[in-house]
Amino acid sequence: MNRAVLIISCLMLLFASEAQNQKYLSVTTTPGFLLAHRADIKNLAAHNWGVDVSYELDRTNTGWGSHYRKPTIGFGALYYNFGNAITGHAFGGMSHMKFGILLTEKVDVRFRMGAGLSYLTEKFDPYENRRNQAIGSNLNGAMQFGLLGHFDLPKKDYLELGLSITHYSNAAFRVPNLGYNIPSLTVRYGLGVGEEEPMEERDDELSKWVYRGTLIYGRKQRNFAAPQDFYNFGIQVRALYNLSEVRALRMGIDYTADKTYKYSEDPFYPLDSITFLQKSEVAIAGGFQWSFGKVDVIAELGAYIYKPAVLKNALSQRMGLVYRVTPHLSAQGTLRFHRGVADFFEMGLGYTL
User: What 3-state class would DSSP assign to 294?
Assistant: First the structure.
């Protein structure tokens, strides 16, 4: 099971621990289509539909929320019928963040992003479900992104219409891991269920430059025919330049020990005999982060300055969350990938100077 994705879901749920204002109970339906993004999973393509029920909180009147346009957070239950006996159904939980990106007197467009965990009833099995070569585990991470037109209704209710895409995968924790991509229409009705008085917030002093070191761990699986587990370890060093209270630039260097380089050249080579240089990779990275209370959403681009083989693309990408437990201690969950293909999920423990 991809325990790493559990971290990203828990981190997003922590949004709900801060100041609150308007509250909503929302119901969403997402009729769509499971997209065959690879030739070997064309047999999985089918019309499908999903539904979720969420509890939402308006964050406009919080300290961090004042930097965004009408931000809300939410968490709830998600169900998908994938429309095919081979792919089955999904049951899970998801938390989300939503804020306005185009607000005028006549237009209100909002961006929604969510993450969570789901149990998929069907996965690849060499004997019972060999035709499903997209999903290798029952437990998977779920991500959802959408652009929604927002319409205020009487009694503080709302209606949202738009387009979304939902992604299911286990971040290379278990093979196969091509994943499901589901573009869909989205219809959401939010029922206003009252208000709560904002809680008093304490703003930590903001330094222009912040420096953080993070120890990382990740697990991934390789070789579809004979699965082999690998355990990666490393350290990331970052300098953060704060542009505002909620936005910062990130730059730094990574070291990761990854034995799949030697394994890709010789799968029979003893893993405990792989030398330091044969498993070492060093990269520089830079990117951006957006803060939502104690949670940071990060996106980075990396470039390898040393790797022992050609196995990976010269450029890497990273997306995920950092939760600042204290002003110094942080927990991190990020996905590292190359041109859309997951490498592994990084779980990290960081310390900020």
Answer: coil
